[in-house]
Queue: 3 jobs
Job 1
Amino acid sequence: MLTTAILALTLVAQKGPIELNDDNWIQVRDQIRLGTKALSFREVRWVTSIALGPEEGTKTAAPMVIWTANGHPLNLTSTYGVRSRLNLWADAPLRAQVLQFAPVAEDWQRLYSSRSWIPKGSLDSMKSLGMEGIFVISPGGKVLGFSASTNPAEVSRVLGDAMAKWLQLPAGERTWGQARIAAEKLNPKPVAQTTRINGSPRNPRTPSVEAKPTQDTAIAIEVKGAPLPATAGATTVNPGGQIQAQPPGQPRVSPILPVVFRVVAKDLPRTSTNPWADAFNLNLISMDFRQSTFLPAVFKPHEVAEWPTEMVNGLAAGVFIDCVRGLPLSFEYGEVQNSKLTTEVKNITGQIATLRIVGNLNAAKSGYWAVKPGEQPDMNEQQVRGIDLQVLGMAKYDTKARKFLTFDLVAIGRRWGGTPLNGRWDDLKPQPIGFNMTLASDAWYDQIESTRLKF
């Protein structure tokens, strides 16, 4: 069946999207899921915030390695971030070498922000070398090494030279105490943290961001929907076992719940050569919504609920977009078209509902913009970009606890065009793409600042 799925996916490039259905969606999903090699970067226990770097340096008594990119290297990131994540950390000797240091992964905006404990003069020196790359620094911010290469041998050489310089520093320049104090003053730890994600505590030092989409980033997007009436029903289980809406007039008991999803974006097999065939990007999505807005009012087999327009628009405009090779641009809501998602109750076992999610997401834009970093738009050549996806997924929902137990959604179709930072300047024609959206885990690598969609 796997071979059949691969052949079917190849036809996406030739004849358009295949029909995603209940018989093939698992095989298609498995083509999008990441294997051991792709996830090798997780074998290094990266500190995910520069604010906590000195604390790790104190534990290891070693210089700090900072892996930085435009967009967090462990999440939605730039072309350099995509390449380095894939090429560097699949190399086992390099992973072992970096563990001799205090490894930190951080978004360059936070690294170079006013809340960074690194002295301004040192930050200026780092910027002069390159905004993205692998830095090795001392507690005082002295740059011991830098490489923007995605070649493991070159980065290994830089790390070796940096460690030699570290060992030559006076003992007083190799202690992290003062840097740790500075970091804690700039980034005080919260007193309490009560927010829970999918029933589990979320790292209090990695709050979600909330911002509106702009023309140069799709990292954050705010979706505003009409509030539900205070008397809207909440789902309950009646004595007969049928799960149904709470009668109107009673107070709503379902709060707005934040749920964090992980979205993997990856090119699917194509008939032509694809030098980026192994590339992928990640995006952690925090969705704040009343779950009943897209769940049936009565939980019984074959009941269907249509997702609100603002939710569908938010996903089409800012989540299921072409980020495989780098940072994408979002779409405006007016550029979303022919998009619809529905949830159907497949069956009920006790208080657990099995849900089927199906639909389409489509967005397109035309105009004049550059498709390569640093270039100016060619006003004689109109650009087009878009995405056309079909969606199918399954979820298990605890109707009593009001939370998802599992959520596994696949979206496949075609993308076309490019934007300045998404790395598609040589790949503008329609080609197959796939996404897999699942619940984020409680693991350290899923505790990174996420895109926030608010409904």
Note: The first helix runs from residue 2 to 15.
Job 2
Amino acid sequence: MGDACEFGGLRIETGLDTNGDGSLVGDEINSTHYICNPFLEPPPLL
């Protein structure tokens, strides 16, 4: 994730797959959103 998520997470890219190859690349990507992990380690269980 680099600079977007210090402790890792998910990158979600959205757009139209204009060439129909099943993945978004280059100009097909209209938007990118990140869901970041809040901690390096999971919080303790109570």
Note: Strands lie at 9-15, 29-36.
Job 3
Amino acid sequence: MSLQVRVQKRRDGLVLDVDLGIGSGITALLGPSGAGKSTLLNLVAGLEKPDSGRIVAGGQVFFDSHARPPVDLPPHRRRVGYVFQQPALFPHLDVWANITYGANGRAYMATRVPELLRLLRLEGLEHRRVRELSGGQQQRVALARTLMANPRLLLMDEPFSALDNLIRQRLRRDLLAVREVFSAPTLFVTHDLEEAFSLGERVAVMDQGRILQYGPREEVYYRPACRRVARFVGMRNIFDARVVAADSHGLRLQGPKIDVLVTPGEGVVPAAGLAEGAGRGETVTEESGPGPGGAANPVSRASQVGPQGGRRAGEGPGAWPRSPQRIFPVGTNVAVAVRPEEITLAGGRQGPNMIAGVIVQVILEGAMHRLLVRFTHDAYDLEVLLPFRTCLENGLAVGSRAAFYLDPRALHILSE
């Protein structure tokens, strides 16, 4: 079962132009408010009509503006389940009646309802009225009612946004448990970064009506495609630089604020693999990218080790995400980014990839401290996220000077 969406829609100043295909599992649609996420879900569900395009789910055409005659299935014929921000339960009915509302078949209900009650932790609440339920319980009832119809596709529009953090975390686990039993493709809309990456096996980042990047969550999180995606997924340290050297160790980048080495494992081809006249930022394959005289590029898979240590790129679900191999000749202007949590204290290291500065602000984030560090005349130049204990033991406070290390394996060269 898959969903293919290629639609255009103008609405309230938003120009939505989306080309997206999802398969089984949960796909998180991540983006800021006003990006067009809810509008896209409404187009798939048939609650709004695209100006043009095509929507196909499981081989059935929901909408096709180019067909003759045009196809536009009404919502009730699409068999799409939709869970909204508000549960919209019937207040005069109990839990059992809400879940089975509109369902047919006594035998089906007798087997399906107990399964849903168990999966969604609603056992013992069957005869309670809506007013007797907590917000989290109401949302679980709404999800059970949606699944009762056995939808071919499940759409969820920020269903946990009105709940407190502890309840949201538990409901995410409930949804993952449901996913093990019900295989319908799920498109989950959120503007919460943590929620997107805890639920979505794949993530689509959307802004201003367009999909900026779509792929496995680790790839989107650690290897954003552009500055806009990088900032949205929390990769706030972005520096302009120029390639000043390239050899078997990787690229040497220098800029107004940094002097760093980026290893081949980040997705760059060593100098030995640079083709004469190669384009800047050109993508090549690892095995067949042309080197001098047509020889294969000598890109070492063994060099691709993640900054957490020991995780090689592309080896299993816990692997460090492998970037496409790209060519960056000497003289190329680039932007290089690094996540705040991938930066560590220098600890006596010497050489490139060191940055020293004065801590100008400390922001407490639970067990972590976010340090804003200045080493130029700007308000601050670097964000670092360190455990509270590390900050305490090293005396890191506002006004103190500290040196930090940017692991070459954690640096990412943005495509644009």
Note: The CA atoms of residues 343 and 406 lie 5 Å apart.
